[in-house]
Structure formats: C-alpha cells, structure tokens
Amino acid sequence: QVRLVESGGGLVQAGGSLRLSCAASGSIYSINAMGWYRQAPGKQRELVADITSGGTTNYADSVKGRFTISRENAKNTAYLQMNSLKPEDTAVYYCKLASRPVYWGQGTQVTVSS
Asked: Which residues does 20 contact at the CB level (< 8 Å), separation at least 6?
C-alpha cells in the first residue's frame, strides 16, 4: 500500500507564495511520474503540473511562469512552488503518483484572497 501526504496549503493574499509538498511512502518499487492537480468548488479536477522520473515537467497554461514543480527521488517527494498567486488559484490541491495503480493524496486547501 502507498500513502501520499500533502502539506503546505493555507491562506495567502494575492501576489503571495506557497510551497506544497507531497511525500509518498509505502510499497514503492520504482520511480514514477508525480503530479499536482486542483479542484475548485463546482469545477472538475484539473492538471496543474507534473514531472517525470527523469525531471521533465509539464504545466497548465494558467500557471506557466508562476508555478514550479520539482522532486527529490531519494525521498519520493514532490514539491510545487507557487508564486504570484491569484484568487483564481483557490482550490484543493491534490498530489498524484502515476504508478499502477494510481494513488492520490487527501488534498490540501489553498485559498488566495484578493
């Protein structure tokens, strides 16, 4: 069994920054891609950014230039540095481990006030 634990969410003013962390533990036998998704009230869950085991990154257009995803393979941990936050970034942010099966974290709330 694999467990993902997210941390780092909170309340921040527009223009501020937050850093999310996602630590994976348990029966992880290979290095897999990891990603961050978010879901705002009344909306579908959407990809924010993901990163392969080799470090190749991919971002949603809405966060390019503001968010940075990174990882530490030795710690099975992924990070999401979020700068220049906007009220529209408000959502529950979820971490995903793209293994077989796929695992999700419990989510962490990010609220950006105007």
From this structure: 6, 7, 8, 9, 36, 79, 80, 82, 93, 95, 108, 110
**Tokens for 15?**
């223009």
Is the predicted pLDDT of residue 28 greater than 80, yes or no? no
Phi-psi region of 51 (alpha: psi -120 to 50; beta: other; left: phi over 0): beta
Cβ-Cβ contacts under 8 Å for 42 (sequence gap 6 or more): none
pLDDT tens track for 87-111: 999 999 999 999 889 999 999 999 9
Quick: pLDDT tens for 48-80.
999 998 999 999 999 999 999 999 988 889 999
Contact residues for 50 (Cβ-Cβ < 8 A; gap 6+): 33, 34, 35, 36, 57, 58, 69, 96, 98
